[in-house]
């Protein structure tokens, strides 16, 4: 089921529960702005999810409502996770789905970090 990004933030979504420690995750990185953890349904050799700690439904919601500090902190966290995972030199892919057409499934902004192997074409049809 995809997310209607025009709806209010749902504090009972799975990533909110992970952030509150109600659902376990394998932590990769954490700071005051962000939390990163391994995806349990990995789509590449390395597949890490990075989420902001704030209550944002999508990239659009985040870019509209987050403070400059939150935005900078989140973007820096994504880069740090990629560097710390040794993905910069071989290359990696970032993916943030927004809404129905993109297939967003969780109503909490999250960036997928893929790497560790050749990833193929950008969009598979």
CATH hierarchy: architecture: 2-Layer Sandwich
Order of strands, main sheet, comes to 1-2-3-5-4
Q: If helices are DSSP runs of H or I spanning 4 or more residues, what is the number of helices?
A: 3
Secondary structure: number of strands: 5
Give helix and strand order, one letter per element, not per position: HEEEHHEE
Low-confidence stretches: none
User: Which outline best applies?
Assistant: globular
Helix/strand class: alpha+beta
CATH third-tier fold name = HIT family, subunit A
Task: Please tell me about this protein's structure.
By secondary structure, the protein is an alpha+beta fold. It has one domain (14-115): HIT-like (HIT family, subunit A, 2-Layer Sandwich). 24% of the residues lie in helices and 20% in strands. The protein has helices spanning 14-19, 59-65, 68-84, and strands spanning 27-30, 34-38, 46-52, 92-95, 111-115. Strands 1-2-3-5-4 form a 5-stranded antiparallel β-sheet, covered by helices on one side. The radius of gyration is 14 Å and the shape is globular. The active site is at residue 110. GO terms for molecular function: catalytic activity. This is HIT domain-containing protein.
């Amino acid at each position: 089921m995809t997310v209607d990004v025009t709806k209010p933030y749902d504090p009972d979504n799975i990533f909110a529960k992970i952030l509150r420690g109600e659902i376990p995750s394998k932590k990769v990185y954490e700071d005051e702005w962000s939390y990163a953890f391994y995806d349990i349904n990995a789509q590449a050799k390395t597949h890490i999810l990075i989420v902001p700690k704030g209550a944002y439904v999508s990239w659009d919601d985040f870019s509209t409502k987050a403070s400059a500090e939150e935005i900078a902190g989140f973007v820096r966290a994504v880069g740090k996770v990629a560097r710390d995972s040794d993905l910069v030199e071989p290359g990696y892919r970032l993916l943030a789905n927004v809404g129905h057409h993109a297939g967003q499934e969780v109503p909490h902004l999250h960036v997928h970090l893929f790497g560790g192997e050749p990833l193929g074409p950008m969009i598979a049809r």
